[in-house]
């Protein structure tokens, strides 16, 4: 089962933000203290966000986020960890990208695929870069676009069997978005993820 949702581009009409119904939790994970401190700031005043100092795979989450590239290659950083723990995950992601987007998932869109494990049962791929191992510009908004795509998928997406994503995923664990090889400063990533949360889950 897999599903896709498109984060509206600047030329499209954005869906009106809707309040979160039910207990959704976003776990902001960091294995470095600079990112953890930036996440602490992002979580302030947002009770559905919490910070975990450690790996995303230490969290009892229903889904984890892969901030990969547009082609679905998962060879470095946290993605290499995912492929070690979930051996079939790269092929599942690449097959989904091919089926839904002709082989290239644009930055600003997201896909959800099963991991084949009990928990996390799902992986959400939301590219932060087009090409593998791409260094992002200092003024990039890619963390915002990736996070917004994840949150819209969580809010509005449906699986192939028609079930809403949010009915099977109530906790998502995410690493930094673009903070590894992409070179995005932790505070920039955290600020953009918080802004994306507010944009999608307004009034919460």
Can you summarize this structure?
Helices cover 33% and strands 16% of the residues. The protein is an alpha/beta fold.
Question: H/E order of the elements?
Answer: EEHEEHHEEHHEH
Helix content: 25-40%
Q: What ranges have pLDDT less than 50 throughout 5 or more consecutive residues?
A: 3-21
Major β-sheet profile = 7 strands, mixed
Strand content: 15-25%
CATH third-tier fold name: Leucine Aminopeptidase, subunit E, domain 1
Task: Describe the secondary structure blueprint for this structure.
Elements: E1 3-6, E2 25-30, H1 33-43, E3 49-53, E4 63-66, H2 77-85, H3 89-101, E5 109-114, E6 122-125, H4 142-156, H5 165-168, E7 171-174, H6 186-200
Parallel strand pairs: 2-3, 2-7, 4-6, 4-7
Antiparallel strand pairs: 1-5, 5-6
Helix pairs in contact: 1-6, 4-6
Task: Write a structural description.
The chain has 204 residues and is α/β, with parallel strands linked by helices. It has one domain: Leucine Aminopeptidase, subunit E, domain 1, CATH 3.40.220.10. 33% of the residues lie in helices and 16% in strands. It has a seven-stranded mixed beta sheet with strand order 1-5-6-4-7-2-3, sandwiched between helices. Helix 1 runs parallel beside helix 6 and helix 4 packs parallel to helix 6. The protein is globular, with a radius of gyration of 15 Å. The two termini are 30 Å apart. The N terminus is likely disordered.
